[in-house]
Amino acid sequence: MGLPIMAPTPLAVFNKEPLMFGFLKTNQDATRHEVQEEFVARVAGAAQDFVEAAGSTGAVLDYSPSSVHALDDALEAAHLGTLPLTPMQTVGAAAYLYEVGRRAHGGLYEVCDDEDPVVLVCGEPGSEVCFGAIAKVERRIRYGAAEAIPAYFELFMTALQTGEAQTIR
Fold first, then answer.
1. What percentage of the chain exceeds 90 in pLDDT?
2. What average pLDDT does the segment 96-119 reach?
3. Which end of the chain is least crowded, N or C, by CB within 10 Å?
4. Mean pLDDT across the stretch 68-87?
5. 3-state percent helix, strand, coil for the chain, nearest multiple of 5
6. % of the chain beyond a pLDDT of 70
7. Strand, helix or coil for residue 156
8. Domain boundaries along the sequence of the chain
């Protein structure tokens, strides 16, 4: 929470393939809106792949903010080894968390760094909240309940409510 706000790279100028979501921006004339629409579609697709994989746990993943508890339960199953996830399904779990935030609060996906190749940026200019989920989901699966998702998501929600610029990772 005490980390400085990062300056994410705008997707419209990103012209090489990032590691996540198979996004390749080849049309240099594409508008930022067109690039963002394509990115949202790919993130949502990855999230849906995870929802299908997690279905065996009985988790109700409906993209509502309260569903982060069901996401956390599914990730606990992955931690315990009862829900085997491929690396792309793990990314899909992070995509699901991003989509919960984006559907509730809007925002844009931005390219960031190796720890979180993609982040969700929400809020008004000057009070933007940069939310990283990929590394957090990986830590949740690796370390268990000590890295619980609901409390982490609450940090994001609180930052948006207070209007204070923050990076949450």
1. 72
2. 93
3. N
4. 97
5. 55, 10, 35
6. 82
7. helix
8. 11-168
Residues 21 and 42: beta-carbon distance below 8 Å:
yes
What are 166's strand-pairing partners? 129
Sign of CA dihedral 97, 43, 51, 147: negative
Query: How is 78-89 classified by DSSP, letter by letter?
Result: HHHTSS---HHH
Closest C-alpha to 65, from 143, 131, 14? 131
> How high is the mean pLDDT of the chain?
86
Can you spell out the DSSP letters for 47-106? HHHHHHHHGGGT----S-GGGHHHHHHHHHHHHHTSS---HHHHHHHHHHHHHHHHHHH-
pTM: 0.83
Q: Please report which confidence band the pLDDT of residue 28 belongs to, taking 50, 70 and 90 as the band edges.
A: low
Place of tokens 């979180």: 116
Q: For residue 130, is pLDDT > 70?
A: yes
| Spatial CA neighbour of 70 closest among 51, 48, 92 | 51
